[in-house]
Amino acid sequence: MTIPTPIPMLNLIEIHKFYDRLEVLKGVSMEVKKGELVTFVGPSGCGKTTLLRIIGGFTNLDSGEVILDGQRIDHLPPNLRDTRICFQNYALFPHMTVADNIGYGLKIKKWKKNKIQERVEELLKLVQLEGLGSRMIDKLSGGQQQRVALARALSLEPKVLLLDEPLSNLDANLRLTMRGEIRKLQERLKITTIFVTHDQFEAMSISDRIVVMKEGVIQQVGSPIEIYERPSNEFIASFVGFVNFLEGVVERVDIGLNKATASTPIGVVQFVPERNINVGEKVKLVIRPETIQISQSEPTGMNNIFQGEVEIGMYVGSLAKYTVMINGEKFIIDQPNPRETFFKPKEKVYLSIPENIHLLIKTEIHQ
Amino acid sequence: MAKAESYSVPQSNVWERLKTFINAELINILAAILFLLLAIFLLYPILAVLIKSIRDPQGLTFAYYLKFFTKGYYFQSLQNTLLLGFINTVICLVVGFCLAYLTTRGPLVLRKPLKIISMMPLIAPPYLFAISLIILFGRNGILTKAFALNWSIYGFTGVVVAQTLAFIPLAYLMIENTLMSLNPNLEESAYDLGASEGRIIRTITIPLLTPGILKAGLLVFVMTIAEFGNAAILGGRTPFLAPDTYTMIIGEADFEMGSVLSVILIIPCIIIFFLHNYLLTGKKFTTIGGKPVASEPRKMTPLVKIPFLVIGFTAVFAIFISFGVVLMASFTKILGVKNEIVFSHILNFDSNRAIYNSIQVSLIAALIGAIIGTLLAYVIVRGKFFGRTFIEMVSLSGFALPGTVIGIGYLLAFNTPPFKLTGGIMILALNCVFRFLAVGVEAGISKLHQINIEIEEASSDLGANFMTTFYKIILPIMFPAFIAGFIYTFMTAIVSLSAVVFLVSPGFELAAVKIFDAAVYGEIGLASATTMKLVAIVVLCMMILNYLTKKTGFDITQKKGV
Ligand SMILES: Nc1ncnc2c1ncn2[C@@H]1O[C@H](COP(=O)(O)OP(=O)(O)OP(=O)(O)O)[C@@H](O)[C@H]1O
Ligand SMILES: [Mg+2]
């Protein structure tokens, strides 16, 4: 017996978009499952907003398909699509009260007055704005406006919710709180959501899956852990968090023992090969700062121990950040819980690099 | 600063002390002089009209006002004028909105051409449309004869049509401006929530545009009721206030009733001027930050598109045809009657002399206007004296005052010594200076707001006195505003009719007056040719302005004078 694969809630097929001669989206394909929160992340100008506007129906695509819940919708105007968008600037109607904003769509759907009122109350409660229904928009704080925009978008229970950098207008603290709340709300309502941001940490902390984009091309799709631990190219590796790259040539591969070595500028590094590699192949080792252990005395019984000299040490409280030079190569290291063991510049230290290192092969390395 | 200097002055040297005093107080002295000028050339004439309307040899009287409100004819005139203003405003706003919507939201191919034709009336004197209507629908009109039409263009309808066409750009530009500054995400959000285009317009676009539309409406209303040419040429037997004042003064020499009509006409204008300036400022919906999104052309639904296109195209077509027939009439013996190509109208000696006179008067007006405008702007922005707002208000009020009223005012005020000016060329220039001061002053103010006051202070810290600062710092920076004021005053002065029609003396005719006379006496070819020459001059001025805007980067054209 085969388990039927559920049809995705949203399916983007080979979407191309040109502005004049500039190709902004170069064949974007992607599936979003029902109830999933997928984040599109990428540097400014990579086409996130454009993609969102295409899904919402505000921008025409040049070729490709948008399929919502099994039905093709790319020819439909926004008012006939079951998607709802929250613009970056919220676009709340400034001449209406909070309640009128939230009830706007319901009124168009010809709901009865008391039904609308009930639903608006319910939504206000959902976004924790009870009692503010009669306020005018300009009498709200930024965070409250954000909530109204959310409530308005949720009012008609869309199949897909589209959020374009919803937190970018909030200050840092509020951004953290709202991030958590949006996620909680989304999980509670099980609403399929596409969340656009250019903040990789925001993406990491909120998503079921992350789509990393660059220059109109999807670079990688995966869970936050996959994206962080197994970035599929150099761009992604350095886009999410800091990373030490170590170039090398594969020297030995032992499939039986599941071990391999590579010669690098700092010496021979042992690692567990995650995939098929050949001797003599050029690779780039991806070593995250927090995976390297730093110590004063040489650890025993371990491989990949290298001696270096502290160049810079920064004490940040919960951790210390070091720049350590090994054989002319610069390494960034995060040391958790530094306390008494904080190292000063010029001190000799031992670094221990783990063996389960992610590595990039030739095609994944930028020239 | 000034105090510190005066301490260092030796007590004995009176001359030095005087110089220091002048230096320190120069801006106040300047303000006083400018205020005096405004008082003499703007307030005093208006006052003279007011006084004339309530005085008889025995003293104070309201008999003339009583006559106005009891005699049916006068009251009819007031009614017609207000009705004209109202109808005109409504039509202009509707047409302006449709055009603005099409040029900001409509099909890309239509945007440019629609915009250009919508703004064409700006380059023509308003009475061009009266002339074109006579050519088309007059007694010998092309269409009158072609379809054997039985109705006369002379009357209320004709005036409404001519005025509407003349003031479409005013409404269009102001509405377009607000439409463009509207965050497109607002309309898109409504669309997203299921609203149809018609509903978006009704519940989002128009409500958010209300302040802008209201402002445009008030302006169109004032301009319409004060406009003299169209009503005078096409009014026929239908009474309107502005042309009636003219008949009263020039035809019957009844200065008292002329003044009463003027005062009545001025009241709505002043009310609206205050509404416009003080009630509506700052009433603007703000939206929170985030990058503005480029508004992409959306597919307009036929339900909206078709009526908008019909209204927009009708207006644009009418404007285009009007220019076309006036141009044709300039080169035809009698268009529609004797269709021979002739150059006699264009080469007409009287017409050319009138144009020459107009250029002369307008140049004088432009020079004085630009100087006074720039100085006023400086005093208003930098001065710290009591009554600054009052000076600003007075200097901007000129455009809200009907030209006919200023014309009568000058006639009354400057007919006797000490200010005997009538019959001369200066009176023609001066009334233009003070009527059209607003544009120069506004351009100057906006330019001054761009300059950091620190530059000036830094300069005076370096020991430069006021005059040096003015020459070295302020003048160069203000120069674009000065040029803008100059060209605008010139452009408006050369086509303006309503005030100078009272002030021209036989033997020194102005082009606008020549056109008016020719149109009234049915010399349509001559009227058309002279109008087209004015159009050419205005176009030339606009091209110069455009060039200067590009060169200096100071958008002079956004300060739209009328
Ligand atoms: N209406 C438009 N006309 C022309 N080019 C456009 C338009 N909208 C977007 N672009 C271009 O398309 C590209 C992608 O823009 P988009 O707004 O989708 O980027 P983004 O990923 O959302 O960036 P950001 O993080 O800055 O919001 C950019 O190069 C942008 O300049
Ligand atoms: Mg964006």
Report on the structure:
The complex is a heterodimer of chains A (367) and B (562). Chain A is of the alpha+beta class and 367 residues long. Chain A has helices at residues 48-56, 98-108, 113-126, 142-154, 172-189, 200-206, 224-229, 234-239; strands at 10-19, 22-32, 37-41, 63-68, 71-72, 83-86, 160-164, 192-197, 209-214, 217-222, 244-254, 259-264, 267-271, 282-287, 293-295, 305-315, 319-326, 329-336, 348-352, 358-361. In chain A, strands 6-7-8-3-9-10 form a six-stranded mixed beta sheet, with helices on both faces. The mean pLDDT of chain A is 90. Chain B has helices at 2-8, 14-53, 63-70, 72-105, 108-119, 128-137, 142-146, 156-181, 184-192, 197-226, 229-234, 241-251, 255-279, 302-330, 344-347, 349-382, 388-397, 403-413, 426-435, 437-450, 453-461, 466-495, 500-503, 511-520, 524-552; strands spanning 55-56, 59-60, 332-334, 338-341. The model of chain B is unreliable at 1-9, 286-293 and 557-562 (pLDDT under 50). Chain B has two domains: 28-60 and 343-562, MetI-like (MetI-like fold, Orthogonal Bundle); 62-124 and 152-282, MetI-like fold, CATH 1.10.3720. Chain B is globular and about 85 Å long. Classes of the chains: A alpha+beta (367), B mainly alpha (562). Chain A binds chain B through residues 49, 56-59, 77-79, 83-85, 87-95, 104-105, 108-109, 138, 142, 145, 152, 155-156, 165, 168-169, and chain B through 183, 185-186, 188-196, 199, 203-204, 207-208, 285-291, 293, 296, 298-299. Magnesium ion binds at residues 48-49, 164 of chain A. Adenosine-5'-triphosphate binds next to α1 of chain A.
